[in-house]
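Researcher: Please predict.
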Amino acid sequence: MTHFDRRAWLRSLAMAFGAVGVARLGAKSSSAPAAGADDPQLVRLSLNENPYGPAPAAVSALQREFSNLCRYTGAELDVLIGAIAAKEGVRKDQVILGEILEPLGTYLSLQGGAGGEFIYSDPGYTALIDSAVAVGGHAVAISLNSRMENDLPAIAARVNERTRAVYLVNPHNPTGIVSGLEQLRDFARTISRRALVIVDEAYLEFADRFAQRTLTDLVRGGDNVIVFRTFAKVYGLAGLDIGYGLVPVPIAKALSDQGLNNPHLFNRLAVAAATASLQDAGYVARVAAEVGREREKWFQLFHDLSLHFTPSVGNFVFFETGIPNSEFAAALLKGGVVIGHAFPPYDRWARISIGLPRENEIARSRVRQVLRATQQHTPA
């Protein structure tokens, strides 16, 4: 693996984060409702958060840790890495802590020099892609297929000698569709012989058959595959900004050498909460079950209104409203509900995160009102 100057990499990383931040704010400001959006009374169903909050064990750990906030993070980080490695069945040196998608995109783009190609599904979550492009990478967007799934054959056909990485979100965001069990595994195993495959499993714990669907076994088996997870979704720790990657040993070593597992990057509260979350084995199953029950209520509404929708398995739903997202979101905001931004080319679709039962009830009532009013004013 080619060596490069760490200080230059860190300077580029800082510039990349700045560019990515500007790009994202610009992209979302035109589609997300602004007026009144900071009202604390609003029902916020826009960012796919877990409204049930952290696991009880995590809350207790946070309370215990308050008296230690005068201390830097140290050996606690190694404990968390060990807990993750044990849970996932990988070596400790294959665990890279943090919300690593942005630094990973920057690293991969710089590592091979400008011009590397990064393939992803469009529309989709682009943190890794944005950071790669900010330092000279090329984004290669592959449209979803007719069923609004990751189009694995089309992606495979686009891989070439310039491909630096293939990035997939499974279940996909914003559609919530999970790829077929064997189809994705066969794809990752085959394509990883030609290019790095990165699979973002941020929402996979909400799906059924998690153990069969995850691609951790490929990382464990030495394939050129990275699996990313976050504590921000099902574990309810979005405010603490911590996740991890399961990474092939050579790439993990390079990232560690660049300081990504440095204890000083992590605050004690995040580390304590994440460690405790892993110990609360029943919490994830309880949250996933509750979200599943609420998701079915949304599906029933879509059936009642004869709307097209995707079979999401995530903690959000995606459905066709028939009106521009900006108009639909503005109408919901008037009723006190904030939803996700638009996902071109699905400009007449909406993504709504699943909140607490009462929040979902309010949102469904408002959706029903807005769409029925729209249908009444639509010429026959």
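Model: The two ends are 64 Å apart (CA to CA).
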